[in-house]
Design brief:
Order of helices and strands: HEHEHHEHHEHEEEH
CATH architecture: Alpha-Beta Barrel
Largest sheet: 5 strands, parallel
Shape: elongated
Strand order of the largest sheet: 1-2-3-4-7
Radius of gyration: 17 Å
Helix content: 40-55%
Oligomer: single chain
Distance between the termini: 41 Å
Strand content: 5-15%
Number of domains: 1
Length: 184
């Protein structure tokens, strides 16, 4: 039950920081688990602690588990942050694999609120226009064809849920400034 101790520790620190600063704080409690049942236990416990957000590694957890968790979070007032652990094994292979654009479309249909999209500089480096293209796929209701961004046909997502992007903290100021210039 180490996850339970970790959740309690993080919730205590979160509420202490909120009390000291008067600011809203959050921490992504990782609900990813070996089974869907265990994942749901973690999400329920996070909700009972009153935290605002949980995290799920959608590739290691699976799309069906992610959809179940997305529905639970939506019904219970939790935000669902999507992490993409293991994605590089799938989408960074030049001669085989699945492009992240395809994974992004499947993820959008699966559900969530916020994704760790990576950046175009540093460790998570990717091609600028292609990264902008899959971020648009996750965020916008209507995407125009733009081959330079990896969008090969116009797509209308109508009311399918969308994501806001997020990223990890930066160890180098140059990366943060480059990302700020790109995303605003």
């Amino acid at each position: 039950m180490r996850w339970r101790d970790r959740f309690l520790f993080c919730a205590e620190a979160l509420y202490k920081a909120q009390a000291e600063t008067g600011e809203i704080k959050g921490h992504y409690l990782n609900a990813t688990a070996g089974t869907c049942e265990e994942m749901m236990k973690r999400a329920i416990f996070a909700r009972e602690l009153g935290v605002p957000i949980v995290m799920h590694d959608y590739l290691t957890g699976g799309f069906t588990a992610n959809t179940s968790l997305a529905h639970y979070c939506r019904d219970n007032g939790l935000l669902l942050h999507i992490h993409r652990a293991m994605h590089a094994v799938i989408d960074r292979q030049k001669n085989h694999g699945i492009h992240f654009r395809v994974l992004a479309k499947a993820l959008r249909m699966s559900g969530g609120d916020h994704i760790h999209s990576g950046t175009v500089v540093g460790k998570l480096e990717g091609e600028r226009e292609i990264t902008l293209g899959f971020v648009d796929l996750l965020r916008d209701d209507f995407i125009e064809k733009d081959r330079s961004r990896g969008i090969y046909f116009t797509q209308d997502w109508v009311s399918t849920g969308c994501y806001s992007r997020g990223f990890r903290g930066y160890s180098r100021l140059a990366y943060a400034c480059s990302d700020r210039d790109l995303w605003g």
